[in-house]
Amino acid sequence: MKRLLGIFLGMSLFLPGISTKAMIKVSGRTAEPAAVSALAETSEENKGELRSEAVEGTETNIASDAVDLQLHAKASYMMDWASGTEIYSANATQRLPIASMCKIMTLILCFDAIDGGNLTLDEMVTVSDRAASMGGSQVFLEANAQYPASELIKSIIVCSANDSCVAMAERIAGSESLFTDKMNARAKELGAENTLFANCTGLPKEPQYSCAHDVAKMLTELVSHEEYFTFSKIWMDKFQHPQGRYTEISNTNRLVRFYEGCDGGKTGFTNQAGFCLAATAKRGGMRLIAVVIGEDSSDHRFGDTRTMLDYAFATYTLKTVVDENNPLSETAAVSGGKTKCVTVRPERSSHIFSKRGDTENVTIDIQMKNRVKAPVKAGDKVGEIIVYKDNVEIDRVNLIANESAEAAGFIDHLRRIAQGWKL
Length: 423
Description:
- By secondary structure, this protein is α+β, with helices and mostly antiparallel strands.
- Helices cover 24% and strands 28% of the residues.
- It has an eight-stranded mixed beta sheet with strand order 2-1-16-18-19-14-13-17, with no helix packed on it. Strands 4-3-11-10-9 form a five-stranded antiparallel beta sheet, sandwiched between helices.
- α1 packs across α4 (162-173).
């Protein structure tokens, strides 16, 4: 069973007398509920994390305006996290030193190790003499002492601790050198083509560089790990040492406290790199990624990032094209069940990142199995919805059974025969 819905983002309108096609208009105005994508909701009205899972291999959308935000940075870049749509770009692929923002990749490998079962947050990590001797930003780890991995990761995220970076690098790869090889390999996997790491801390060492575009890609990957936000929103805390001593730590990213919706990011500074910041902020479900490199002051670093985020939140929005809270009018036929069909609904919502007031050409393709064999459990996949924007596939959402259907027994079949039902 295959049904096509053409959507042009505003009011919903079903054409009378057509059973296989319907046209819905969804724009910046709120629409009435309809079969698949009932509401053209802006992201401010949605609750929770709303991420469109773009199909692997699709090109990044470009929505960059010709607007001049008059930033002070050598390079800058901003994008929508969910769709990857570029919002603002200035010298975004210029290779530049990024200082401690390279710890974004260090953290990605930490969370990769956790996801892969190679590390747990409560594992005790032994600190080497080399790790304890690292200069710059640090929490003054004790050589040969053991610390929970969670505390070391927290100190990297909150206060950019170089000693904790090296301790984690040695735990995961055996040495910082081998860990750096992993960092460069992971950068290639993410498509960070203008990035080369020389260490896990970002301390000056040649050759090493990245660019605003690549940093945004890396932060996009990092914030996909939910555990990251356990630490990234901390403003001030105490780092506990084994012998009872503690180090007070505070977040180097002041936007976490002073900018609405900012819940993560990474600062960086060296004389060579200047003041740098990669930040993420979420409002009403729309998450943005913003990067500045080579600012001439810390105030400009935070001020320019705030300017970028303010512009994007004022200019763009998320619009719902598939609503998980709205079951479809169609049903899935059940073979050999006590009931002949089950209602269906989308497994999750799907959203389009769009400029406020713009009309988007979005097509929804509903595909369901001809018959689903009983027993069927609520939540079982019975089809899928494919979302196209400008005829390019951007998302797939599973269609799932809204209720269960038990398999029919012998008595049920006899009853159907008696009632004249077709087996």
